[in-house]
Structures are given as structure tokens and as C-alpha cells.
From TrEMBL:
SUPFAM superfamilies hit by this protein: Amidase signature (AS) enzymes (SSF75304)
Amidase domain ranges (all copies): 30-451
Keyword annotations of the record: Hydrolase
Domain of life where this protein originates: Bacteria
Protein name according to UniProt: Amidase family protein
Length: 479
């Protein structure tokens, strides 16, 4: 098998070969590194190349296997890590110039879990300043570009991760999500992801000096962006392994009980007054039909309080940001990010003081209403965004830009406030005047049932096809 054939492999196909001994970890890593060196100069998705370190680790894995050690479930899989998470010996910059020398003393749990499973980190990926944009650009590393073309933002804040994995730079890409930061890049690049629920994946940065705010802790989760739903089923069981450094981690298995009868799916096209673009509507119809073909029982049904829950949740988060982060943003952020935050505070008037305490309490009301609804409808199929993905720097264009980027994305941050899992999967490739772009939909699920959301994503993917195939045809696959 040639190097150009190896980097194309999914994590699932790659591990089938490494476990049988038909492919070495070193060859798997080298192929991904070659691909990274070929395409990353145009994308700027990976901002720290870890090739030497990766190859040393790959050789060590091969030597251990030769001595009879059992390979891990992700043996030899090349992965990338986002620069806002600690990796021992490397800077946790969070896209901020002032943090460029903050060297991690130890690995974060997600890094440990991936490496304990046999994965090989080949590079660290870009994020916007403070990981608080749905686009990816910063003064430290510069702009990340979408492999579909420069007419589309790569998304954020895990924009480097989404662009990297869809361009073939590693089979798995780590990212995180406080209001959509796994799902925005998946939607922008045509990738597949699942935002895990609260407590599902252990999280902590050993380099941090203070604990994060309560909402940051409860809304932010760690996850993976992949090219296929099958790769989520392969990799997420390793990612959710427990770590005592996260005292609120919930040790639940990846797969839970099989549900009786056809699974009921609540299907909605409601965009709360924001115009539903025809291409998004076509994607939703395709996703619905795919689930029906796969044996799901899909019914048009409105889930409770999405708009109110999402807006209240993000306004409360902005209250916490205003209280705990504003001074850091003013001290270390560029003028661009400061201006964006000024507009964030206009779009989402921060809820503070006594009203913040009330809204934190009301979060349980929203979660309870959803819990009851999901007893009858374990899955909810909805838009992710009401229109195709936006252009780069749209959020720098004042109130109108921020409104298009984040204001209408209530299905995104509502799931973070509720702490529920939500998958994001492409359901259509749209040919727009600006150029081609994928259209993703969202599938929310019961608490602890990320597996159900990924199963549904796989059913949609089976009908639509995997979006990396037409992307690589447009890019030219190279060698």
C-alpha cells in the first residue's frame, strides 16, 4: 500500500490493518505527515508540526507490538490536538499571543486518553483568540482556510481541526464545544461530529491557574471531528475513559440499552423567524427520508423551548464572560476580538448578578422539559444553521454579521446549556453561486445517548455519502 493510499484511510479501516499487523504505526504516521506537509501550507490548519515526536512515538508503538504487547483500539491512528488543550511540553496558546509561552506540564485527559488508546499526535490545530469565535483567525498563527475554498469560513472555534481532518491531515481531530465549536467546523467542512453531553468526556488543563466559571464548566465539552460516523463509534469509547482530575466525569459506557421498536425522531424545520434557506430545507428533507428508510419513525414535532432556552443560555454565558473574562480579553486580545465581543454583548445582553442566579436555576427547568420530551422522542432532527455556512470574517461585520454567525444558531448553544449530546452530519452538497459547500443538520439525543445520535448520523451518511469524497476530487488527492 502506497503512502498516498494510507492517508486516505478512515480510522476504522486503518486500525483494521494495524491490528492485523498489515500496516505499521510508523507508516500510518508518515503518510499523514506527508499529507500534512502537502496541503497544510495552503490551509494553515495545523499550526504546530509534531512530525518528529509523532514518528518517535510510532516506532515505540511498533516495537511494543513486536514484543507481544496488545495494540490499543486506536493503534497507529494519526490525530491532531487543538491548541487550547494541554499537551505536555507544548504551548497551550488558545490563539492568544500573550499565551505563546504557556507550556503544559502534563497532558490533558483527552490527550492522555487518545494516546493510551494508541493514537499518534501529528500536530496541533488552530483556534481563534480565546476560542470564542465561530471562525478561525488570530494574530499569533493567522487565518485557517476551508479546504472547500476561501468562500467559506472553516468554522470555529475548532476550525483548524475541521479543516485538517477533512483535508486528510490525520483520521481524527480533537476539538471542543461551548456553544457549537465542534459542530460549526463540522458544518463548515462537511465533517461528522457529536458534541458529547455534560460529564461524558473528562476535561481539565493542568496549566490553568484558576478554575473556569460554572457555565464554562457545564457548557464546554471535549470531542472529536471525523470524516465518518463509524470513526466516532470507534474512537469515542477511548475518549470517554475516566480521569480522576475531572471530579464530575460520569463513567457511563458508550453503548447503552437497545431501545424497543422503531426509534421515534422529532423532526422540525422551525428557525424561529430566521429565513430557512432552500438548500437547508432540502438537506433536512434528505436527512428525514434517510432516517425513514433506515427504519426510524420520524414525526413532525416541536421540541420544548429551543429558542428561549438557547438565548437565555448564551446570555447567561455572556454574563459569566463579562464578569470573569472581559479584563483578560481587554489586556491580551486584539482589537478585532475586542470589537467582536462588544457586538456579542449587544446580540446577547449579558445576564448578571441576581438574574444570573435565577437563570442558572431555571436551567434545570429547561433540562427537565427536554428530558420528559426525549422519553417519547429519543432523537430530535433539526437545522444546525438556518442558512448555508457564512463567509470568512462575517462576524467582524458588526451586528448584522454576528447575528448571522451566532445570533441565529440557537440549536447549537441550546444543547450546551441543556448539557445534551448533539451530532452534526452533512446531508447535502449545495452548489451555490459562491461555490460548493456542504449543508449539515443536527441530531440531538437523550442524555448519555451519544451513540443513538451517531447511529442516526450514520444512517444519513449511508444515503448521502461521505463528503470527503467530492472534496478530495475538487482538491486533487496528490501523493
Amino acid at each position: 500500500m502506497t503512502q498516498s493510499e494510507i492517508w486516505r484511510l478512515s480510522a476504522t479501516d486503518l486500525t483494521a490493518l494495524t491490528h492485523k499487523g498489515d500496516l505499521s504505526a510508523e507508516n500510518a504516521a508518515q503518510a499523514a505527515i506527508n499529507r500534512m506537509e502537502q496541503v497544510n501550507p495552503d490551509l494553515n490548519a495545523v499550526v504546530e508540526n509534531l512530525s518528529d515526536e509523532a514518528l518517535r512515538r510510532a516506532r515505540a508503538l511498533d516495537q511494543a507490538r513486536a514484543k507481544g504487547e496488545t495494540p490499543g483500539p486506536l493503534h497507529g491512528v494519526p490525530v491532531t490536538i487543538k491548541v487550547n488543550v494541554d499537551q505536555k511540553g507544548h504551548a497551550t496558546t488558545n490563539g492568544v499571543v500573550a499565551l505563546k509561552d504557556v507550556i503544559a506540564p502534563e497532558d490533558a485527559p483527552v490527550v492522555s486518553n487518545l494516546q493510551n488508546a494508541g493514537a499518534i499526535v501529528i500536530g496541533r490545530t488552530n483556534t481563534p483568540e480565546f476560542s470564542f469565535r465561530a471562525d478561525t483567525d488570530n494574530p499569533l498563527y493567522g487565518r485557517t482556510y476551508n479546504p472547500w475554498g476561501r468562500h467559506i469560513s472553516p468554522g470555529g472555534s475548532s476550525g483548524g481541526a475541521g479543516a485538517a481532518v477533512m483535508a486528510g491531515i490525520g483520521a481524527l481531530a480533537h476539538g471542543n464545544d461551548i456553544g457549537g465549536s465542534l459542530r460549526f467546523p463540522a458544518a463548515a467542512n462537511g465533517a461528522v461530529t457529536v458534541k458529547p453531553g455534560l460529564g461524558r468526556v473528562p476535561a481539565w488543563n493542568p496549566s490553568q491557574k484558576t478554575e473556569r466559571g460554572l457555565l464554562a464548566q457545564s457548557m464546554s465539552v471535549q470531542g472529536l471531528i471525523t470524516r465518518s460516523a463509524a470513526d466516532l463509534h470507534l474512537s469515542m469509547p477511548s475518549l470517554i475513559a475516566g480521569d480522576p482530575r475531572d471530579p464530575f466525569h460520569v463513567p457511563m459506557p458508550w453503548r447503552n440499552e437497545v431501545l424497543d421498536g422503531p426509534i421515534k425522531v422529532a423532526f422540525t424545520k422551525n428557525t424561529f423567524g430566521y429565513a430557512l434557506h432552500p438548500e437547508v430545507e432540502k438537506a433536512l428533507d434528505t436527512a428525514r427520508d434517510a432516517l425513514i428508510d433506515a427504519g426510524y419513525l420520524v414525526e413532525e414535532m416541536e421540541p420544548p423551548d429551543v429558542f428561549e432556552c438557547g438565548r437565555i443560555g448564551y446570555r447567561t454565558l455572556m454574563g459569566e464572560v463579562l464578569t470573569l473574562m472581559k479584563s483578560d480579553i481587554e489586556a491580551a486580545g486584539s482589537q478585532t476580538i475586542q470589537d467582536i465581543f462588544d457586538v456579542y454583548f449587544q446580540e446577547f445582553p449579558p445576564i448578571v448578578e441576581t438574574e444570573m442566579i435565577r437563570m442558572l436555576a431555571k436551567r434545570s427547568h429547561y433540562a427537565r422539559e427536554w428530558s420528559l420530551f426525549l422519553q417519547d422522542y429519543p432523537l430530535v432532527l433539526s437545522p444546525f444553521l438556518p442558512r448555508p455556512f457564512f463567509k470568512p470574517d462575517r462576524d467582524t461585520e458588526g451586528a448584522e454579521g454576528v447575528h448571522e454567525v451566532l445570533g441565529c444558531a440557537v440549536y447549537a448553544y441550546a444543547m450546551n446549556f441543556l448539557g445534551l449530546p448533539a451530532a452534526c452530519v452533512p446531508a447535502r452538497l449545495a452548489e451555490l453561486p459562491s461555490g460548493p459547500q456542504p449543508i449539515n443538520v443536527q441530531i440531538a439525543a437523550r442524555r448519555w445517548r451519544e451513540d443513538l445520535a451517531v447511529d442516526a448520523a450514520a444512517a444519513i451518511e449511508a444515503r448521502v455519502g461521505q463528503m470527503y469524497i467530492p472534496l478530495w476530487e475538487r482538491m486533487g488527492t496528490g501523493n
